[in-house]
Each structure stands twice: as structure tokens, then as C-alpha cells.
Amino acid sequence: MSSSDATVLEARKRIEAIPDEQSQMAHMYMFLVAGEPSEVSGKYAPNGKDAHRIEYMVNGERFPAVLFVVKNSRVTPSKKNLHRGCILPLDKQYEPWTGMVFDWCQKHPDENPFAIRQRKKELIPDSYKRNLELQSRGIFKGMKWVKDVYRSNKEIVKRREIDFSSSSLSELRIMNLKEFYDFDEVDFAHFTGKRVIPSFVPEANTRIEEILSSNIQKDEIDRFKELSEEYFVKLLIPISFLNEKKSTSVLIREYIELNRRYDTAVGITNSIKNINYMFQIKLDILIFKEDMSLITNMLGKCGTEAEFAQHIGSLRSVFEIEMEPLRKILPEFPPEGKSIAWAEAWLKANMIKPHQSMIETWKMINSFRNNLGGFHSEPDPKILDNAYRYFGEKLVLPFNNYQRLWNSVLTQFKVSLDELQQIINNYEPKRETSTETQFS
To answer: How far apart are CA 22 and CA 111, in angstroms?
Structure first.
């Protein structure tokens, strides 16, 4: 694999600045499919009908995609120029260029959409390829690429710096797929139709040979879709993450964690609505404050004590409700009592024994709210330490795991809501017996 001072972000920036639309689309396509110049504008170029709109189901969710059928310029061991399928997400958050190139292909269904002509009557594919290569030199002027030179045994002999070219763009894309999307040797065999990185696993080598020697026809859309499913899932990483200078494993882990936190946040807001609905039907009261900004606050960054305090304050606000309707349900409840204490008293009055963690979780959230430095100048260290431990952390200064602590708070709060939901669903209010019935 080659390396370079050229970056994916710089290459994309320059391509997006190309004024000529056809040239811009040709370079976008070349990058997306890791194509050689001859696979874009030369002998093996596609026509507009080689782009197909498809769809995948991933974890029950539909993901629109585009299949670009590419004819390999590299001759395979079986001496056949096989087709490969490059499937890319259509959603702009994952790859904004997919839809742009697909729309361009739709406008040129019966011709090569990327035939770069210098003269109107120019009809030779090799000329189109040369024109593309010449344009690439100007577009990427000043960018350098470090080329690896190999012996016949694949040992690197030397590295030499060259001007960035159309062929370099293909290699940059391969590096992008490997480092950012975590493509393995089997993924590359499907996507590029060739060996990109060596495999030392016999089973993988056998599979790669099968992929490279199979002769899939260009109209076998379902076959391409089936073979590409494993790597398609890897491409579902927001393109905005390219701006982050982090490893692929860290990016994927953060993305998965964000999705998990989003699911928890949505679950919490839905549970609050459902619980309030049931309490309103059965007792004509609401026991949680519903705040539309709550979900946004739950998803916010939480890397410092100040940010954690802000999130806790937002979550604690769900307990800040009008107490008068609740006191009518329990007339003997102390006038100074708050909603958490009322819930505990209501459970006791109805002889309902919840899991100890339900009320305890709410009290610990309240302890954070009442003792964090952002709210009180004199926090109680013992109460704070107890709250940290309850949510699985130990308060050792300097404390740096606020995001993990916040995730734990959300998870346990959701568990407590699930239990209360079950309680109110099964609860049947006591019906008052009329005087007439009592004395009949």
C-alpha cells in the first residue's frame, strides 16, 4: 500500500471545486469505486444504465443504496474481464456523492457518462482516458503521492514520491476504505475485483480466489447485492467523521455508543409520556414533567463536570411538577414533600413493592443535582461519592469518565421507568363504595 501527504479531505475538497460538471462527476465516480482511469473514461467505461438503485435492510431499518457495476480493467487469472459491484449508501450523511453520481448516470442512460472529450467529434475511448488523466494532473497539482515499489515476492524495495494523479486517487480510496471503513481482504476482493492486501488465512485466500475467478454478469443485480452485504454495513459511518483524527475502531465505537445513547434517550422520553398517560387515565394526575428539549440534552457532549452537571439538571427537571394534584391523592402527604417522596409514599400506601433500585435511582439523580459544584458551593463529598458508586464509578480526582457516568445514569433511569410503567399498567384504582350500597 502506498502512503502520502495527500489526504482524503483535500482530494474531496478539490473534486468538489471542479467547475466542469462532467469532469467533476467523473472524478467523484473514480474515487467512489476506486476506479482506474480506463474504468471511468476508457476502454472499460460504464454506461448510465450500469448504476442501479437498490435497498438493504440492516437491523430492521431500510438503507437506500446504489450499485455501480464496474468492468475490471485488470485481466483475471481466467483471462476474463469480470464485473465487480460497488455498492454505496445513498443517504447523504454517509456519502453525499453517491446520489450526485447516480443522478448524472440517469441523465446518460445509453452512453458513457464520463467520456471526457476535448473535441466534439472525438470518439476514441483511449482519448477520453488521456483527457481524464490530463485533467487530474491540473486538479491535484501540488499534491504528492508516495509510491511503493515491490519485488516479485511483494517485498517493498523502495518508496518514491510522485505527483498525485488519477491512479493515485484510486489508491487513496483504497487506503480510505482500509483505514476509515476497516475493509478486509475479502471486502476488497468484492469491491475492487483484485487483491489489495495480502491474507495469511487459508480460508480467506480460498474465498478470495473464488471471488476473483467467478464470472458474475453485469445484470445479476441480486447476486452483487448478496455478495456486498458484509462490506455495505461497514460503510454506514457518517462522512462527517472524516474530520476527526481518530482511528476507525474509535470512530465506530463512538458511533455505536451514540446510537445506543440515542435509543436510550428516545426510550426515556417515550416512557415518560406513556407513564403520564396511564397515571392521567387512572388517577387524573401527571407525575413527570414533559420537556421537548430533554432528548437533545441527553445526547449532548459530556466530557467535563460542568457538562455532566448541566445534563443532570436537565434530567432532574422531570421531577419538578405541580404537587397539588398529587397531594389530593394522598391527603396525609407532607405539604413540603416533593415528587420522588410522593412516589415512594404512593407505592407504600398501595402496598406495592418495587425493586429497590427504582426509587434509589431517582434519589441518586437528586443527590447529584443537590451536591454538584455547578449547583451548590458546598457539596457533600460523602453523598457525592455514594452517588458515583451507585452508578458504577469511583470518585477519584481528577475524574475523567463523565461520559461513561452519564451513560450509566441514563441506562439505570430507563430501567426505573420500565418498572414504573409495569406498575401503573397493572394498577387498578380502588373504587369508592357509595353510601346507598353501604347501608342497603
So the answer is: 13
